[in-house]
């Protein structure tokens, strides 16, 4: 019974922004289990509204039941309501978008965005999941994780997001050490081509890293000489948010 539950929950993780639809046999092959088992799991999820079959393709995709649960989670999550005004102030001072990335297991998840008003800006959706080995917003979290967790991430492989993603384990570990020493991270084109990121970590009361705050946008708007001034604004917001987090975490 527990194995079936594990497989069912694992199945849901295959429905991503990059791969939104699956056929039964296609998914069974990917999961390396029988297509009969996959069909039964999909049928059960479909019955409760968590999965639906798309009529044109005859493939399965996530159902609307998730929207209700997402709404409940969002309503109960006071963190973004507390932090968003601070993020908006950073946008006003820097004229660039600001992102709150939360640690979820061994991944990051975009929890909130305060968008720049500029016509050209970095676009990311709330709820997007990110690997922790690429980009300032992610590496500034990974830098403060226990070495055992870092090792687990490294062992899974450093799949490239762009041509600038660091793929050598030793080089990444050196960068993480430097980030931890500096207390902030800077990247250009590591997660998305031609996009810069300047990020600082956020901690719970027990000093465990829980999230990052990042300013990001087109790289042509952030030459190196502008970084110190923008970082100063970001670090002021970091201190303000830390005091908020320590009240609730």
Report on the architecture of this protein.
- The chain is an alpha+beta fold and 249 residues long.
- It has two domains: 66 residues, Winged helix-like DNA-binding domain superfamily/Winged helix DNA-binding domain (Arc Repressor Mutant, subunit A, Orthogonal Bundle), CATH 1.10.10.10; 172 residues, 2-Layer Sandwich (Beta-Lactamase).
- Helix content is 46%, strand content 20%.
- The protein contains nine helices and eight strands.
- The strands form two sheets. It has a six-stranded antiparallel β-sheet with strand order 5-4-3-8-7-6. A two-stranded antiparallel sheet has the order 1-2.
- A hairpin with a 5-residue loop joins β7 and β8.
- α2 crosses α3 and α5 packs antiparallel against α9.
- The radius of gyration is 20 Å and the shape is globular.
- Keywords: DNA-binding, Transcription, Transcription regulation.
- This is IclR family transcriptional regulator.
- InterPro entries: GAF-like_dom_sf (IPR029016), HTH_MetabolicPath_Reg (IPR050707), Tscrpt_reg_IclR_C (IPR014757), Tscrpt_reg_IclR_N (IPR005471), WH-like_DNA-bd_sf (IPR036388), WH_DNA-bd_sf (IPR036390).
């Amino acid at each position: 019974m527990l194995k079936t539950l594990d497989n069912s929950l694992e199945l849901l993780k295959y429905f991503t922004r990059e791969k939104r639809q699956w056929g039964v046999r296609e998914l069974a092959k990917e999961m390396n289990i029988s297509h009969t088992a996959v069909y039964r799991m999909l049928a059960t999820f479909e019955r409760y509204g968590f999965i639906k079959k798309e009529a044109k393709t005859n493939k399965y995709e996530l159902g609307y039941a998730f929207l209700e649960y997402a709404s409940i989670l969002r309503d109960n999550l006071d963190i973004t309501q507390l932090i968003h005004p601070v993020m908006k102030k950073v946008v006003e001072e820097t004229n660039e978008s600001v992102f709150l990335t939360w640690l979820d297991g061994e991944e990051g998840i975009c929890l909130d965005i305060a968008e720049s008003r500029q016509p050209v800006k970095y676009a990311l959706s709330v709820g997007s999941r990110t690997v922790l080995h690429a980009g300032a917003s992610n590496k500034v979290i990974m830098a403060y994780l226990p070495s055992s967790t870092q090792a687990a991430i490294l062992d899974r492989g450093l799949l490239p997001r762009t041509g600038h993603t660091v793929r050598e384990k030793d080089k990444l570990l050196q960068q993480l050490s430097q980030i931890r020493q500096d207390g902030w991270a800077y990247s250009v084109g590591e997660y998305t081509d031609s996009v810069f990121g300047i990020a600082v970590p956020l901690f719970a009361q027990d000093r465990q890293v829980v999230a990052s705050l990042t300013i990001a946008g087109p790289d042509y708007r952030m030459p190196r000489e502008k970084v110190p001034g923008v970082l100063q604004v970001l670090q002021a917001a970091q201190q303000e948010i830390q005091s908020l987090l320590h009240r609730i975490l």
